[in-house]
Queue: 2 jobs
Job 1
Amino acid sequence: MADKYQILKSVYGYDKFRPAQEELIDNILSGKDVLGVMPTGAGKSVCFQVPALLMTGITIVISPLISLMADQVNSLTQAGVRAAYLNSSLTLPQQRQVLSNIRRGMYKIIYVAPERLDTEGFASLAADINISMIAVDEAHCISQWGQDFRPSYMNIVSFADSLPYRPVISAFTATATQRVRDDISSILKLNDPFTVITGFDRSNLYFGVISDGDRYTSLKKLVDGYEGKSGIVYCSTRKNVEMIAEKLCSDGISAAAYHAGMPDELRSSTQDDFIYDRIQIIVATNAFGMGIDKSNVSFVIHYNMPKDMESYYQEAGRAGRDGSPAECTLLYSGQDYQLNKFLIEKSSEESDADETTKRILINRDMKRLGAMMDYCSGTGCLRKYILRYFGEHSDEFCGNCSFCISGSEKTDVTVDAQKILSCIARMNQRYGVKMVVDTLKGSHSEKLLSLGLDSLSTYGIMKDSSEDRIRIIINNLISNGHIRREGDEYPVLKLTAKAAAVLKGEEQLEINMPKAKKPARVKKSEAEEYNISPQLLSKLKSLRSELAAREKVPAYVIFSDVTIRDMCAKLPQSRNEMLDVSGIGSKKLEKYGDQFLKIITEHIKTTGGAVRITNSDRSAMEKPVHAIADKISAFVPSEEACSLTQLCDMLISITEMNIKTKPVRTIIGDWLVREEYLCESTDSKGHSFKDTTFKSESIGIIKISKVGKAGTPYTSVVYTPKAQKFIAENIADIAETE
Ligand code: ADP
Ligand code: ZN
């Protein structure tokens, strides 16, 4: 009998489980209930599908969305797994057919909507067949505290109770607070479930906020850089959706509108056009996306700020599901706040909740809106902000967001801070951030003028600063405790005792400010980005489209972009080599392998044996210090002391490979810190650097004094030949930390 590794390889074409997957699978196979809380793209499906194929009976997967079911069943069928779904999109005769097939034991996995569990036909069937597992996808739908409560999820409980014996129950979700997790466990009556909660970080996603300039111009610029890649543009209103879609089309871009006000038929054909790559961009309200499993969405742009971080992360998270790098950008403008506030108030007026409940909800929503605004004003790493918001710790800088990329610099903002604080004082500490900013900027808004705020001496004293800059300083004053927010619904700014010191000039305020000019991100084509042949890439992709059209499935169901790129990189030339490509299992090899091989072989012939990235090159890129360790016997220390960067370059040169210095320097530097030969420190300008410790000298790392160009003395940490030798001797250990 096959084991889990064989299934992973033959059905999915993958070599390794991700750690959480393997643990969950093992527990299911040992008969335990499980709960997996893992972000989108973490690979939840594998967690229940693999054991489903190894257990004796059938697995019933409960899934809330018809489109999701079709997608998953398509993928499984393509991979040679006997699977089917049962929902209202099938005609009655089709449903009867599926039911009778189930009875005859034709399937290992069936997907059903929760409503189905309650029907007579299904209940009687269930009593007759051997159900090994009930897998509950999107399990948060069972909790009233979750975002998308689905009362029909309650059917799962009575269904499980009605069975002659209790199958394993596994539950999966991407978003669950403690409260929702508890609900899932208790309502589903999970029996001492084995629980895995992996982090929420999606490291392949780049996060950006653009808050200056004309929005459409920014959008167009972004989209121009995404030539040929699929993406979603979210707008907050239907009117915007139509306007932007039209404008993109008239600018020659393949885009279509999608919102709940469109006729059903048009909506679903537009959705299909997008999924099947017939249009490049879908411009949509948040009505679009639930149940979209399209794995090759390369960018999500928010034309408007959403109402809260929960919505933002969910919508942005539709990018990069296949693990490829993808970008999420939010185009922010001050009006977004007003619009969202209006929407929150409107929905409260329209709700039939009692007054107290309404109050509570408005409070909650306004608070969430405030947090969303803080994200947009970008006072620090955006990823850090997101992860903290969802209760996770993170590094100070991620290196993959607009803040980290543009870089920040310590800036003395004492004078600006004084202006802000005195403005708040003069406004009698009765207003929120928006009014304070407007007053400082000298806005002519009706509200401001009618309150007479234009007569204050601080009116317009920061008119030359950007709104962003003012907000960043205010946020820092809040986090440093000079100002506090008071009140829930419409929080006003109050000065604290700490403010006095700044106002009197007794305390200087230095903060991290994003550098004024953000360097343009260099956009590369897919082929350039992965260093593969553009011709081959496009040939393989057109073959994939042809096959997809013939089989009537989306292209990514045939092979994901990751798989196609891996073919271009590995250039397999036999069926066996084809199996080394990530995402190709035996069934898919049998079905499509030869056709793809043919194109690859032709390509190699015509390009006269194209450069083939060997496995050792690849592993050198992924694990540069390992590559150095392999060649370390060739290393000769220099006679002079050198910097860590120079030492890394010397080490890299012995590999004769194209390895970047920075990652190597980071790994070696971090190892030295861990072993206490160095320690993290900050210089007088606030730049962090690695300083010597009491242990440094023993291995030959020393600090020497130098004099800079302007005659200013400074110290520098250098690596004597002894230190170079020491690092070379320990390189295998260092490589282990990679
Ligand atoms: P989720 O349901 O958690 O959002 P999916 O099940 O859709 O995630 O998986 C996301 C992507 O990751 C899919 O393209 C899937 O094939 C891929 N994947 C899953 N497990 C692995 C693995 N062990 N190795 C490589 N890729 C994997
Ligand atoms: Zn960052």
Note: The pocket of zinc ion (ligand 2) is lined by residues 381-383, 397-398, 401, 403-404 (CB under 6 Å).
Job 2
Amino acid sequence: MENDDNEHVEPVKRIIELNDDLLANNEALAQKNAEICREHGMKTFDIVGAIGAGKTLILEKLVERLASEHKILVINGDVTLRIDADRIEKHGAKCIQINTGHECALNAYHIYNVLKKFDISGYDLLFIENVGNLICPSDFVLGADMRIVIVSITEGEHVIRKHPLLFKMSQIAVINKIDLLPHLEDISVDRMIEDALKINPNLSVITLSAKTGEGLDELLVALNI
Ligand code: MG
């Protein structure tokens, strides 16, 4: 029995070592990304959240508000297609689509490739829309100045406490779709805010409706652009 247990320890340990290497490389490349963006005077934001949380619509609204005074680059991470990139581009940003295939998050290498191959001179804002997922992006920092985690109240009141890691690693948490509150009697937004601040007392927590625009001003202030 004891031997059996030992046999199981070794492969698991090896996987952890491999992952440590991978994450260390990602971390180093993320720092390089941050340097490149700083040199170009470009502020960078990594937007994470589940599929359907409202990342793309919020980005559309932000670009709409900022495009007249800023040159905006958006990197859209998706498993496939460029539907989101096309939606955002209409509002005046240059959008670069990255299809990650089987990978459930963007990593620093994806971003580095764009920064190296695309002429980023003149751009002062970079928004990165990560692949729709509340778990995988916590493994891969990208080198952005700020990470914004977006959840919607339709994901359930406990969505924040179920995913503490991303909230620990973010500077802004957006609770979206508050226009649907009258239809969701079981949801306490106050409880969601409480959960977010318990996980990370330094978070700016913003309640927002991308649909009506409520809360968008507060988000723009928090972005400190
Ligand atoms: Mg999207």
Note: Residues 13 and 19 are 10 Å apart (CA to CA).
